[in-house]
Structures are given as structure tokens and as C-alpha cells.
Amino acid sequence: MFKCNPIAVILVSSGSRGDRLLFRYPYEFDGSKEVTEPEFPRNPYAVREDKDQTNGIGAASDSLGQLAGYSDEILTTVLATKTEVCGHKFVLKVDNIRFVGHPTLVQDVNNKFQQRTRSKEAQTMILFNVVFVLQGDVFQSVVHCYHDLSKRLALALRHEERRCGYLSNQARIMLAVHDEVAAMPEDIAESPFRTMLPKSKLCRDLKEVYENLCNAGVVSVQINNWVQVSFCLPHKVHNVEQMHIQADVIEKSLKAIRPYHAVLLLEDETELLDSLPADSSPSLIRIIKMTNPLKSLQQLSQDCDLALSQVFQVAGHLVYWGKATIIYPLCETNVYVLSPNCDLRVASDLAESFTSKFPGQSLTAVISNFSLPLPFGEHRNPLGWEQQKIDQVRIVVWLLQNRLLVQLHTYVFLMPIEKYSQMDTDTIEGSVSRHRMISERSTGSSGSGLTEPHFDTDDLIVSPGLDSYSSKSMELGSNEQSLPDEMTMKRGIRDTNLLSELSYAERLSVLSVPASSNDDDLKLFDRLCPYFRGKHHLEEIMYYENLSRSQLITLLDKFRDVLITCSHQDAATITYQEFL
């Protein structure tokens, strides 16, 4: 179902005994499935390709999720690379199969001292490669993740090999099993990979890695009971129902985290703490215990006595591993609405889980209240009991944890008034040409040696103040411009630095609003102008400018003639609405 699942994991080596395929899992292939055909009438006019005419290699791998058609000899030849390739990303695509690995040298072939110390050994491993077999049409982000896992396993195995010869010992066990099975009669011989599983710890670890990737997408294995290898496949971890999320989308979401956001754990705190490794960071444990959906990251850093940057890193770590999500702290002004991916079936698994969590409540009745985007405060009964209010907060938290609700934020756009936005730039350019003609007449155009004054159109549009443009227009005697009235012009003369970052049409539109006659309102509007480009929602503006919601809403209402608003999700929480 999920193309991010691996087809197989393979361990190959190269050494004194040549190139060998030490282990592969799964090691069995049900050949009966390959010849099974669907029982429905075929189109007699369809062009059908005979199986005997196809290449046949790996033909069933894509449809059955198994590595079929590849013998151990072929895999050994393909995956046992040269020493020059070691230490680099290894990706090979054959038909509809993609092999991803990280070939690694066990020892430095250029180090003569290591060669002399190992010259007495009868068998020497030069390199090895842990390869993951994937479907050929997977996304490049999936390939990158599997290469990262292969590299982590390779580094752990090389560390243990240099520390205590672990890899060489495991390889000897695997090769002994291969030789033992090869000496058996053909009628009683069984798969050597099945036989070596109880004997080799490394084989069991690779099997565990494969099964964990297919089941949950999270790997946590100890190589030789010494080196911990942890890995998260975000394409698998963040797959919820019909939602398939790419890793790059999650990274963009992590970059959008701000101090006013909050962390919402997706698992029970006790279960999450129990699943952590024994050597987990104390800061991580402290943040998990102190986190609260009502508490912002900035407040969390103060309560935990940690730097805000460290809290950001821990929060991003939890989100990447699917243990938490980023939300805006719960408050009555938050606007929630049903997620477009919400499961509305009455007999769904979520409905049963909700009923067991909140006895006497119906999930269908609860989510029907969020059909329209309304502030959370309007869903609460002001005359209700205190316990009812607490239960309602717990219900909203549960809905957010299961991604049944999304929060909408209000974004502001500055739009000039139509009569100013339709000003033709040719009129301004005509004024510039007329100014040049007047200057030439006044200074003389025939060999006077004087350079004509230069005015750029952009200089007129983005001028330091509106009064400078007014004086130039009056000097040119131009009546073609649709300028504001005298009272509006006087408003702009009060402070030439106000609205200096806006375009000409935007400045005229703002100054034509009656609220601009108030100096305090105009200065506050000028201060908030950088946020009126549709990239910052109201909560972000309130945080960075230290404003109350009433102050901001009042200002937006006063300048509603030039401001428009729209509602959509925050960039930090929009991750779960992206699909593959």
C-alpha cells in the first residue's frame, strides 16, 4: 500500500573469500502468487505481452512487495561495489527496483600498518554494504532517508568491528551456515538465511529493522548490544488515514515554528517517557513533563529554565518523530473547523475511541459543532459548570491530537483603492518628459555644457514624502494626476517618514482614509505595514508588536477601506494537509 516500505534488506561483503551475499530478508518468495491471475474476462482487443518475452527480472517485486527474480549471485555482483565507491551514496535502479546503500570500508586499504596487523588472519573483510531494496518509482526524499539509515547502520557496524571484531565474527557465522547448507543434499536443503537467524545477532537485528520499517517506520536497535541506532521514516510515521506527507514538507513546517506556538503531545506522557532510551537528554524529559497545550514555547522555556533555541530543537525533534504537533495555544479566540480529511463515519475506529475516552459523548455530535469556522469561545456555555468547560477543552485537545480539527488564522492584505491603483504610469512618465522640456528651455539645449536634470520614474513613485512629489507636480503644472484633496495632502506633510515603504498608489489610498487624520492611528498603521502582505496572521502581529487583540482589531476596522482579510492555516501547522 505504501511505496515507502522496503522490499528487502541485504548485507553483502567483499574480502579474501571474494564477494559474498551474507544475508537477505525476506528470504522466501511465494512463487504461487506470481502465476495467479485475476479471474475476470479479458478484453480480446487488448495487447497482451507474453511473460516469456519479458525480461522477468524483478517483475513481481513491485506488485507483491517481494524481491523475486534475483538470484544471490546477481545481487552479489551488483551490490558488492569497488573500494572507490565506499563512503559515498550508492543508488542503483534496475527495471522497477531501486537499491540504496552506503558501501563502507572495514579498514583503510592505504594504511600499510593495518594491512600488516591483519595479514596473519586467514579471512579478511575489506568492505561491506547494507542495502535496502525499494520500488523504482519512490520519491527522492524516501531514497535519501533510506540512505541515511544505511549509513547509520554502516557506521555502527564499522565501529564495532574496529572495537571488538563484531562484524567479522558475525560474517564467519553466516559463511559457515552457507557452507553447511551447500553441503546438504538438494532434496533436504533449506534456506541458509532461515538457519542463520537463530545463530546470528546481526541477522536478527536486520530482520527487526525491516519489520519495524514496514510496521511503524521507526527503528531503534542496538548493534552488538552496544551502539544504539535510531531512525525515523517520516513518510511512514506521519501517514494518517489517507494522508501521505513528504519529509521536505515537515522540514518547512519546522522552520515556521515561532515562540508563540505550543507543543501538543500526540501520545500519553507516561507512554512517551517510557519509550525513550535510557540515555535520553534530561532537557527532553523536562520539556515533555512541562509541556502543555495552553503554554507557548516561550513560556515553556522559562518554566523549564532552558534556552528558547533548545526548546525549539526539542519541539522539532518531537514533531519529526511523530510524537507531537505544533499548535497555537488554546484560547477562546482560536477559530477551529473540521479538517478536510476528517473521518465522518459513525462506526469508525475514532468514534469508538472517543466514546471510550469520553463516556456519554458522541463524536458525530461533537464534530457537527465545528462544521463552520467559529471562535472556540462561542462553543462554550458561559453558564455551564466548571467541569463542563474543562471537559470541552479536553475534547478539543483530543480532536487536535487525532487531526480532526484545524485552526484558521486571519491574514491581512493591503490593497489600494481602485481609483488610485488604476493610475497609468504613462502619465507619470509624461510628466517627467515635460519636466525635461522645461529644464532644457530654461538652461538652453545647444552646447551650454550643462547636464540636464535626471528624474527616474521610480524616484517619483517611491519618494521620501508625499509633499516632495506634490511640489514637483505643481511645478510641472500637471493636472492629469488624480491627487487627493488638500486636507489629505496636509496629513502626509506632518511626517515625511510615514508610509515611506509603500507605493504611490498605496500611500494615496491610505491617506484618503478618514482615520489617517489621527496621528496615533497613522503612526500605528505605518508601524504595522510590513505585516499587511498576507504573510503574518493576527496572533503573530500581536506577539511581535506587543499589541492586544482589541487594539489590532480596532485599527483594522478603522482602515478597512484599504485592508482585506482572509483565513487559512498557519504554515507551521499546515503540514498535515500536504499530500504525496
Question: Could you please describe the fold and organization of this structure?
Answer:
By secondary structure, this protein is of the alpha+beta class. Among the domains are: 184 residues; 67 residues, no CATH class; 133 residues, no CATH class. The chain is 43% helix and 15% strand. It is built from 26 helices and 15 strands. The strands form four sheets. Strands 1, 2, 3, 4, 5 and 6 form a six-stranded antiparallel beta sheet that branches. Strands 11, 12, 13, 14 and 15 form a five-stranded antiparallel beta sheet that branches. Strands 7-8 form a two-stranded antiparallel sheet. Strand 3 and strand 4 form a beta hairpin. Helix 12 packs across helix 13 and helix 13 packs across helix 14. The longest helix is centred in the N-terminal third of the chain and has 25 residues. It is elongated and about 95 Å long. 28% of the residues are buried.
Main beta-sheet strand count, sense and barrel state? 6 strands, antiparallel
* Rg value: 34 Å
Detail the poorly predicted runs: 30-65, 117-122, 424-436, 438-490, 576-580
Estimate the helix proportion, in percent: 40-55%
- The overall strand count is 15
Arithmetic mean pLDDT: 80
Individual helix count: 26
Q: How does the helix and strand content classify structurally?
A: alpha+beta
What percentage of the residues does DSSP assign to strands (E)? 5-15%
The span between the termini is 13 Å
Globular, elongated, flat, extended or rod-shaped: what is the shape?
elongated
